[in-house]
Design goal:
35% of the residues lie in helices and 24% in strands. With 185 residues, it is of the alpha+beta class.
Length: 185
């Protein structure tokens, strides 16, 4: 499903029968290493990877600070991260809650989750965050909830640098992000 291939097409591409692909999907058999490698190769091929996997690749290779977080009961986990975001903010961590530099983002995500981030009631949200590096750096943060093909919840987060100004300082003091709600009609 993730590769948007019918069983017969996938079987042909990886050199097995459609019946075998059906048995793989239902969990009746585990693929041997050559078949598992062929499936992974398909998942990495831009011609067959899913739209969600394209987004993940875009985040991984972005020259801008951005990340893709998988949401869940244990808190958000980093699913993809740009090099600049990993270097400047995450300091090697794969969990947002373990990163003191991103406390504001973590707090925003908690507030957004309470307001319906994972229920489809929020289209997106924006906040301004200050990184207290020397000198202070201001960032406009955009939160966009998305789902992958399996229905798992994610949040795409992008940061855009702002000039230090009275307006940026005032916006950074706002307690919660500005939310774009889904409207009926």
């Amino acid at each position: 499903m993730r590769l948007r291939l019918k069983q017969g097409a996938m079987a042909e591409l990886i050199g097995v029968s459609q019946t075998y692909v059906s048995r793989l999907e239902s969990g009746l058999v585990q693929p041997p290493e050559p078949v598992a490698a062929a499936i992974m190769k398909l998942a990495e091929d831009p011609r067959t990877r899913s739209l969600f996997d394209d987004l993940r690749a875009t985040v991984d290779h972005s020259p801008f600070p951005c990340l893709l977080l998988q949401t869940g009961v244990d808190g958000p986990d980093v699913a993809a991260v740009s090099e600049v975001m990993a270097r400047d903010f995450l300091a090697g961590s794969r969990r947002l809650t373990d990163t003191p530099a991103l406390r504001r983002l973590s707090g925003d995500l908690d507030a957004l989750t309470r307001d319906g981030l994972n229920t489809g009631h929020i289209l997106g949200a924006t906040s301004v965050w200050v990184d207290h590096a020397h000198p202070d750096r201001f960032w406009q943060v955009r939160y966009t909830p998305i789902r992958d093909e399996t229905g798992a919840g994610f949040v795409h987060i992008t940061l855009a640098r702002l000039d230090d100004s009275p307006a940026a300082r005032a916006a950074a003091k706002a307690a919660t992000p500005r939310i774009d709600h889904v409207t009926d009609g």
